[in-house]
Specification:
Blueprint (H helix, E strand, L loop, with lengths): L1 H43 L2 E2 L12 E2 L3 H8 L1 H32 L6 H13 L2 H12 L4 H8 L14 H26 L3 H9 L4 H12 L1 H16 L3 H7 L12 H10 L4 H26 L6
Antiparallel strand pairs: 1-2
Helix pairs in contact: 1-13, 2-13, 3-4, 3-7, 3-10, 4-7, 5-7, 5-11, 7-10, 10-13, 12-13
């Protein structure tokens, strides 16, 4: 009996060791490439440091909260934060509503729904740089969009060169290129709803709209919460489109300057790495607070 217990104990210890050996490469890489840089960036956010300085990070001048205070006094950062907020407010609800409508369409019994699912999803897997270049071609003064508008008597617009149109143009591009991702997630949520609930609602005399309002939407609540959080985080981290369209300068007149684009310019063009790290943690704080607010609004039942 003791021999069996000792053998079982040895087997369990060996099993634990094997388990740790399997996860050890991931743990090491996680510590080196995520936790380590995160700690260093947090320390740098309280220092004045440049890659051009011939000193180590630990020798850099400690400035305390000066970088954070400067951020909120910086007119370019405030403009970038405003642009990013407008971008998020415009893109998030638009792409989620369109994605839900498309998911309902491709979840129905229409012919060729497999083709439409693939067609709607393809822009999501297309490079954002390629999409940006394509939209720059479509939206240029003598581009396809202006030619179509001119046939209806409208004048040609310089979409990406106008301070009032540049950001909305990027927002349209973002919606087109990302709506397929959220459609697929909504589709998965729709297919997880039991048909018996719709049958029971039909027996009770509910029409299509009542079934959608009282059955589909409540049961899609966790899926909608997930899509909302992912979409909000993605819009606050927008970089590629703004960089390509503006050539990296956020123009015209900072009308397409986003927080991440300004962070990139500050850290890798102006070499103010301490200030750039402070901007990064301000952005992280904003995203974290907004996520917690959304979690509170949607309630605990959204947890899987």
């Amino acid at each position: 009996m003791n021999f069996k217990s000792a053998g079982l104990s040895t087997f369990k210890k060996r099993e634990k060791i094997d388990g740790w050996l399997f996860v050890l490469p991931f743990v090491i890489s996680y510590l080196i490439f995520f936790v380590g840089p995160l700690i260093v960036a947090f320390i740098l956010s309280f220092k004045e440091y440049s890659f051009l300085d011939q000193i180590s990070i630990m020798e850099a001048k400690w400035v305390g909260l000066d970088n954070y205070i400067h951020a909120f006094k910086d007119p370019v950062f405030r403009k970038a934060l405003l642009n990013t907020t407008i971008y998020s407010i415009g893109v998030v609800p638009t792409q989620l509503i369109i994605a839900l409508v498309l998911a309902l369409i491709v979840n129905s019994d229409i012919k060729g729904k497999t083709f439409f699912r693939a067609a709607y999803y393809i822009p999501t897997v297309t490079s954002t740089v390629a999409v940006s270049v394509m939209f720059m071609f479509i939206f240029k003064t003598d581009g396809l969009l202006n030619k179509i508008l001119q046939t209806f008597g409208f004048e040609a617009y310089n979409w990406f060169g106008d301070i009032n149109l540049a950001l909305p143009s990027i927002m349209m591009m973002a919606v087109w290129s990302s709506v397929g991702l959220y459609m697929i997630i909504f589709l998965a949520g729709l297919q997880d709803i039991p048909d018996s609930l719709y049958e029971a609602a039909l027996i009770d005399g509910a029409n299509k709209w009542q079934q959608f309002w009282h059955v589909t939407l409540p049961l899609l609540r966790p899926t909608f919460f997930f899509n909302l959080v992912v979409s909000m985080i993605g819009t606050f981290q927008v970089f590629d489109q703004a960089y390509v369209v503006s050539g990296g300068n956020g123009g015209p007149l900072n009308s397409t300057m986003t927080v991440v684009l300004y962070l990139y310019r500050t850290g890798f063009r102006d070499y103010k790495m301490g200030y750039a790290c402070a901007i990064a943690f301000i952005l992280f704080s904003i995203i974290f607070v907004l996520t917690m607010i959304q979690k509170k609004l949607f309630g605990e039942e959204t947890q899987y």
